[in-house]
Amino acid sequence: MNDEKVDFSKFGKSFQDKLAHLILQERTFCDQMQEVLAIGFFELKYLQVFVQKIFAYREKYETHPTYEIMTTILRSELEDENEAVRKQTRDFLARSLVSKEIQEAEYIKDVSLDFCKKQKLKEAMIKSVDLLQHSSFDEISSVINDAIKLGSDNDFGYEYITDFEQRYVPKMRHPVTTGWKLIDDITNGGLGNSELGVVIAPTGAGKSMVLVHLGAQAVKEGKTVVHYTLELQDMSIGLRYDSCLTGVAINDLPIFKEQVYDKVTDFDGTLIIKEYPSKTASTSTIKTHLEKLRTRGIDVDMVIVDYADLLRPKRVEREKRHELESLYEELRGLAQEFKCVFWTASQTNRSGLNAEVITMEAISEAFNKCFVADFICTVSRTIEDKAANTGRMFVAKNRQGYDGMIYPMFMDTSNVKIKVFEPTNETIEEINVKAADQQMSKIKKKYMSWKEEGKGDAQRTAS
What we know:
Blueprint: H1 13-25, H2 27-36, H3 45-61, H4 67-76, H5 83-98, H6 105-131, H7 137-149, H8 181-186, E1 196-201, H9 207-220, E2 224-229, H10 234-246, H11 257-264, E3 270-275, H12 283-295, E4 302-306, H13 320-338, E5 341-347, E6 375-380, H14 383-388, E7 390-398, E8 406-412, E9 417-420, H15 428-462
Parallel strand pairs: 1-5, 1-6, 2-3, 2-4, 4-5
Antiparallel strand pairs: 6-7, 7-8, 8-9
Helix pairs in contact: 1-2, 1-3, 1-6, 2-6, 3-5, 4-5, 6-7, 9-10, 10-11
């Protein structure tokens, strides 16, 4: 006879903790588990109490409890438990509130459901042996079939009434700062988990510098950043991060190497730079690399792809714009799958080369490729701007708040120092008219200068 202990002990404490967390976090999964889970399967008393309170609340009120409700329950309904269990149960809920997304959630759900459903089926088979003597085949078949149906996936979609409370539970976005307070203010703290941001700029305007700035701010915040470079060498990108994090000019880095090292090692964040030649890596390549990092226990908070237009499409389309649209859709899919922030860049067409403000119309090749993005900003820098270390950022799309604003910028590419200032009240049309007037004024001044020089030459020749 098999004396194997029927509980989750063989899976370990961490597995059981995460399972209890998922039962509270996901209503549809809890629906399945409540049909097949015996509370005694948890070997730890505080987890038994925790899950039992969830099931009891659901049975009484016919709705799934929120974190707030569970906090109230665990404060007022644990009188029958000893002090140690009360403290452990409350501490577990507190840990669940601040814990990160469970990366191995699907595995834990599959294994726990399989274990519980097998126990239910085993019970039904034992019961069927007794029924063989004096029950009909249909009765025995019904017992077995009912056991097989228990714990099956009964998620038919978002149930408007049943899931009412979920609509009012604050979503944990875990935003990562952009390093620009004005942009953080309109995006609720920066981009959050599963969100895609796109920086649009013409060639040479500094979109790669902007991506480095974003990655550096995340590293300063203690985040783990993976930067994929498809154009520049990984060492070059590393030097830009050195400069951005320390303020030392890129050309001066070799001189202050020791000081730079001391400064960058003070940050708690992790930076991984992965180089792929242009058009050799696809979104599948990036997915495989991220999965390898996950298996090594590296939880990635931000992914930067510099830049998406240089990825190799999974399939060749007749028109390039269709390939680009698919690339951005796949990147958004990766952001959702790995539940982290994704930033990338896109190049404008020729109309954006010397534009005062770049709008969505200047996106190269495929306008639709940015429809899936959560945040889109453009960076424009004229020849005069580059000389003066200035520029403009236009927020073209923002799912978290306001858009359509134009922010003056300071951008010093020698040390990757980028600042964003209060938005201007001028419209794009007014800025373009003003720029055209200034350009015309310069042309007239230059013409008059040439004219005066010509008169002077003529007088000297005559004399």
